[in-house]
Design brief:
153 residues; alpha/beta; five-stranded parallel β-sheet
């Protein structure tokens, strides 16, 4: 896992930030390579499945996380983020309701992704503050697929 432009301390040290600027988002998308998609549905018609597969086609390593699934769209899936090894993902991309995000913060802190990315329509300030206090950068209310298509192509 790499470091980002302007990052002065090692990963996990210091306070994370809420990323909102295009250059910050672009750095994340260019430097991060492994993305766990929390809530990646096995149903092809769901946005979470479409986004996960888009990320695979864009060259990212994608790890689906969805209860009761061992495989989603040909990718090895995990039932919960607790099943992932700490440090194994760069981005934890979250498809959950805003009010459900806080339930995943403690395990996200253990997992230590570089970025905790809440999908379009998902915002939780309390969760973001806890994540930033743990040195994890946060993106809220943005679709990673839309941002990638807009900034990386």
């Amino acid at each position: 896992m790499g470091t980002f432009k302007g990052q002065e301390e090692e990963m996990g040290m210091g306070k994370g930030r809420i990323l909102t600027e295009d250059d910050e988002i672009l750095s994340v998308l260019e430097e991060c390579r492994t993305i766990a998609v929390l809530g990646m549905s096995p149903r092809a018609e769901r946005d979470s499945n479409e986004v996960g597969l888009y990320l695979v086609r864009a060259g990212y390593g994608v790890i689906p996380v969805y209860p009761g699934q061992k495989e989603i769209s040909g990718l090895r899936a995990y039932e919960k983020t607790e099943d992932l090894a700490a440090g194994s993902v760069d981005i934890l991309n979250v498809f959950r309701k805003s009010e459900d995000v806080e339930a995943h913060v403690a395990d996200a802190i253990r997992l230590k992704p570089r970025v905790f990315w809440m999908q379009l329509g998902v915002e939780n300030e309390r969760a973001a503050e806890r994540l930033m206090d743990a040195g994890i950068d946060v993106v809220m209310d943005r679709c990673i697929k839309v941002e990638h298509a807009r900034l990386c192509r």
